[in-house]
Amino acid sequence: MRTLYFDCFSGISGDMVIGALIDAGADPVQMEEELKKLNMDEEYNLSWGKVVKNGITSTKFDVILTSKSDQTHEHSHSHELEHSHGHSHSHELEHSHGHSHSHEHEHRHGHSHSHSHGHEHSLGHEHNHSHVPHSHPGSRTYKQIVEAINEANFNESVANMSLAIFKKIGEAEGHIHGLPLEKVHFHEVGAVDSIIDIIGAAILIDQLGIESVQSSAIPTGSGHIHIDHGIYPVPAPATLEILKGVPIASNDIRSELATPTGAAIAAVLAGNFGSLPPMTVESIGYGAGTKTFENHPNVLRVIIGETQ
Predict the structure, then answer these.
(1) Residue numbers of the chain with a pLDDT score lower than 50
(2) Tens digits of per-residue pLDDT, 148-180?
(3) What is the rounded distance in angstroms from the CA atom of residue 244 to the CA atom of residue 255?
(4) Sign of the torsion formed by the C-alpha atoms of 208, 210, 216 and 220
(5) N or C end of the chain: smaller count of CB under 10 Å?
(6) H or E, element range at 175
(7) How many CB atoms sit inside 10 A of residue 157's CB?
């Protein structure tokens, strides 16, 4: 059976999943074409390329929002899914765009570039979108996301994976905020970059012919993050809710290692959590996060191979 194993020794986020799958041999150009079925492609550009994290060559994947996304590129918030209108606020998104982190990318809609945009996505990222007051730019309801996926005419596997991951996040958010699923507004997870991360991951997993998914325990990190309602412990409430029933690994890194999107991808797709299963390894991929830690590489490793 063709099996994908998430080795989450430095956490997991949506962009790290896509970077690792590309690194393991998935075709990002085909993913980009499939994503156009959502009719959102005027709102973003995609980029990917090699970076080195603590000595390990890995693939960094980024979603760059355009002006069509109705979001300005002033960012500085730290995560969680709930926001005050028109202020700088905190979110649990995967990408913070528009800072200064430079690396070389092989592709961005056809032009070669080495661009500087730092995206703090995942591990302890802080970003701030300055939103247009009261317009909820980038905001989509759970119902709108479901409709967009259903209308896109993805194949059944991609649609089912994507819908299940969004449902997991929506239910967690609804539980925390006391709202039924249909009333959950995905201000952040509904923003374009996280939609791309979730559906893009499903497209690549399907493309690679994966029949089963397994994962290590999920390290969440430690410390505190600033969100709209004050200072909260890591893992953030949404992430912890998503990880109910999933083994959590402890470590002493004072940073947020698992984002809601990354946690939901693992929680929904992995049929088993534990050590690497017996397998004949066929490909290995490393997906880079944005943080740099002193003693270990901030990457997600995926291992693909045949299990019995």
Answers:
(1) 71-137, 189
(2) 999 999 999 999 999 999 999 999 989 998 989
(3) 20
(4) positive
(5) C
(6) helix 156-177
(7) 14
